Every structure is written in structure tokens, then in C-alpha cells.
Amino acid sequence: MIGKLNHVAIVVPDLPAATALYRDTLGAAVSQPVDLPPHGVTVVFVTLPNTKIELLHPFGEKSPIAGFLEKNPSGGIHHICYEVEDILAARDRMKEQGARVLGDGEPKIGAHDKPVLFLHPKDFCGTLVELEQA
Ligand SMILES: CC(C(=O)O)C(=O)SCCNC(=O)CCNC(=O)[C@H](O)C(C)(C)COP(=O)(O)OP(=O)(O)OC[C@H]1O[C@@H](n2cnc3c(N)ncnc32)[C@H](O)[C@@H]1OP(=O)(O)O
Ligand SMILES: [Co+2]
Q: Considering the entire predicted model, what is its pTM?
């Protein structure tokens, strides 16, 4: 059911430093930072030939990544995002299979203006999974 790997997300303590690392040291194409208040994150996208890397930093008081950064002060891989053709069909299938869909179960519009959902890391081998409608 899942398709392409859309992105791998890394939570970072210092977004300008991480941007410089990917742009100058690794030589990648890096976007400007974008604040996404409904998601509680500021995001920088690194575009690679076959996928993207999402550099994340908490935005606002109630960021869902604040706890992760506290536990991983130098940063770390936070989630992996797979594309699906139909987000609502994917959600219903996940529920039928017994996987926990996070939040209220309704898709939100993600960083690429497409609907996204998150699945509990304890149900997917310790990895937080994001599904994005292609
Ligand atoms: C905009 C966008 C986009 O691409 O379009 C984005 O990606 S936005 C990306 C940011 N948005 C999200 O992440 C939304 C979905 N995330 C959430 O709802 C939350 O972050 C949770 C995944 C439920 C975790 O919440 P919180 O850190 O408050 O819970 P917690 O500390 O009680 O964690 C419960 C257990 O899960 C583990 N845990 C927490 N976050 C984890 C992660 N990212 N990867 C693997 N394990 C993780 C904890 O260590 C703990 O395990 P132990 O009990 O064994 O210690
Ligand atoms: Co993401």
C-alpha cells in the first residue's frame, strides 16, 4: 500500500547550523525555513535526487517535537514519510490492522500542501511514520 519514500525528518537543535551543514558541507540544495504553526515546527527541506530530508525545529509552545529534542539534545532522526494514494483509505486500513493513528485521526495539510497522518512509533518498529497523500 505504501509507495515512495517522501522524506526522512531530522530534529535539530540549531536550524541555521543544520542548514549550513547540509548546504555547505554536504553540498545539497536547501530551502528557506518555513514556519508551520498547525504542526508546531519550523522546517527546512533538503532536496536530494531521489527523496527529501526535512530538518525540523520546534515552533511555538506546544510543539510535538519538544520532548524528542529534550531527550535528544544534539538532534536525531524523528520520522520517515511514505506516500500513499488515498490517505483516508490508508487511515482506515491502519485502524483495521490495529495500528494507532495519532491525533484526532483526521488528516492535516502538511509541508507540501497535501494531507498527512502520523502513526504511533511503538506500532512501527520504534519509528514514527508519516503518511502523505501523493
Ligand atoms: C509538517 C510535517 C510534514 O512533513 O508535512 C511534519 O512532519 S510535522 C512533524 C511533527 N509532528 C509530529 O510528530 C506529529 C505526530 N507526533 C506525535 O503525536 C508525538 O510526537 C508522539 C509520536 C505521540 C510522541 O509524543 P511525545 O514525545 O509527547 O510522547 P512520549 O515522550 O510520551 O513518547 C512515547 C514513546 O514514544 C517514543 N517516541 C516519541 N517520539 C518518537 C519518535 N519520533 N521516534 C521514535 N520513538 C518516539 C518515546 O521515546 C516514548 O517511548 P518510551 O516510553 O519507550 O520512552
Ligand atoms: Co514530515
A: 0.98
